[in-house]
Design goal:
Blueprint (H helix, E strand, L loop, with lengths): L1 E2 L2 E2 L2 E2 L1 H14 L1 E5 L5 E5 L6 E7 L8 E6 L2 H8 L7
Antiparallel strand pairs: 1-7, 2-3, 4-5, 5-6, 6-7
Length: about 90
């Protein structure tokens, strides 16, 4: 599942707000990628892991955030987090 605030070529500010609220107040921050453009979060209610990344990061301010569900194999490869660290 992917949650992206871009709709018909325009950024939906309400969706950006939802992503920011989830990553600030609901999800638990687990790790960041080495390059700093991706962050790993865990939903404390479902246990699902989510990646927040910034699309068009070359834009001023770093682009807009997206959330997508991360499979367990990718967690260690991208974030260097093992099962014991989660």
């Amino acid at each position: 599942m992917k949650f992206e605030p871009l709709s018909e070529g325009k950024i939906d500010k309400a969706k950006v707000s939802i992503i920011n609220r989830l990553t600030t107040f609901v999800f638990v921050h687990v790790a960041d990628s080495d390059d700093g453009w991706q962050s790993l979060y865990r939903d404390p209610f479902s246990g699902v892991y989510w990646r927040r990344a910034f699309v068009d990061s070359d834009y001023h301010g770093g682009g807009y955030p997206t959330l997508d569900e991360v499979n367990p194999d990718e967690i260690q490869r991208v974030f260097g987090v093992t099962r014991n660290d989660r």
